[in-house]
Amino acid sequence: MPDTALEPASAPALELRDITTGYDRRVPVVREVSLTVADGEAVGLLGPSGCGKSTLARVAALLHRPWSGTVRLAGRTARGFRHRAPRELRTGVGVVFQQPRLAADPRLTLADLIAEPLRATGRRAEIPERLPELAASVGLGDDLLTRRPHEVSDGQLQRACLARALVLRPGLLVCDEMTAMLDASTTAALVATVERYRREHGAALLAVGHDRVLLERWCDRVVDFPAG
Ligand SMILES: Nc1ncnc2c1ncn2[C@@H]1O[C@H](COP(=O)(O)OP(=O)(O)OP(=O)(O)O)[C@@H](O)[C@H]1O
């Protein structure tokens, strides 16, 4: 059966097999790491700073190319990464990074930021329904939606980044230290939003972080890096 064929719903949301990768050919930062996130499962990935968690999360989100190993999303093998990642695989993964200011286009209003993946995939007709629904779910009022990133706090911008990550209804959400820069109440609000989304859509989660207490509370299981 070709890899592009639809697999049964029970295929794991994410399978990373023997991933080796890095930035400088001589020194891999991730060596032969394997990790599976089952359909609908929430997995926490724990590890000290600099061990390669974010790099692995970026591989899972098809944003960084592995030197060797395989990535399968919902049973489909990824053949391309970054701009070469096929749209049907890319849109199945939502990603939230630690630093919203590096992830958000400073020229866009929060409303446009959230809606941007719908525009980019030719689904702008869904914006009038999805935008208010997502803004409410992350706790962003209308007054904030018309502002640009420099006019809002980090926590408000991260709320918009989470809404954007959910706008295409991905089957897998990758949260890379999503709450590391946030206060306790914003952290609780964003975690609750992810939980609600997962309950409603049966989505899987890979949550990267170094706060064991948060990850153990949030996830079905926690894996210490290097996993595998
Ligand atoms: N763009 C890059 N170019 C070169 N080296 C990089 C790059 N990004 C990360 N690295 C290096 O790769 C290693 C792993 O980094 P990574 O960000 O994956 O670790 P991490 O476990 O997520 O750390 P943290 O918890 O501090 O975010 C580090 O030594 C880092 O310096």
From TrEMBL:
<comment type="similarity">
    <text>Belongs to the ABC transporter superfamily.</text>
</comment>
<dbReference type="GO" id="GO:0005524">
    <property type="term" value="F:ATP binding"/>
</dbReference>
<dbReference type="GO" id="GO:0016887">
    <property type="term" value="F:ATP hydrolysis activity"/>
</dbReference>
<keyword id="KW-0813">Transport</keyword>
<feature type="domain" description="ABC transporter">
    <location>
        <begin position="14"/>
        <end position="228"/>
    </location>
</feature>
<dbReference type="InterPro" id="IPR050319">
    <property type="entry name" value="ABC_transp_ATP-bind"/>
</dbReference>
<dbReference type="Pfam" id="PF00005">
    <property type="entry name" value="ABC_tran"/>
</dbReference>
<dbReference type="InterPro" id="IPR027417">
    <property type="entry name" value="P-loop_NTPase"/>
</dbReference>
<dbReference type="InterPro" id="IPR003439">
    <property type="entry name" value="ABC_transporter-like_ATP-bd"/>
</dbReference>
<protein>
    <submittedName>
        <fullName>ATP-binding cassette domain-containing protein</fullName>
    </submittedName>
</protein>
<dbReference type="GO" id="GO:0055085">
    <property type="term" value="P:transmembrane transport"/>
</dbReference>
<keyword id="KW-0547">Nucleotide-binding</keyword>
<keyword id="KW-0067">ATP-binding</keyword>
<dbReference type="InterPro" id="IPR003593">
    <property type="entry name" value="AAA+_ATPase"/>
</dbReference>
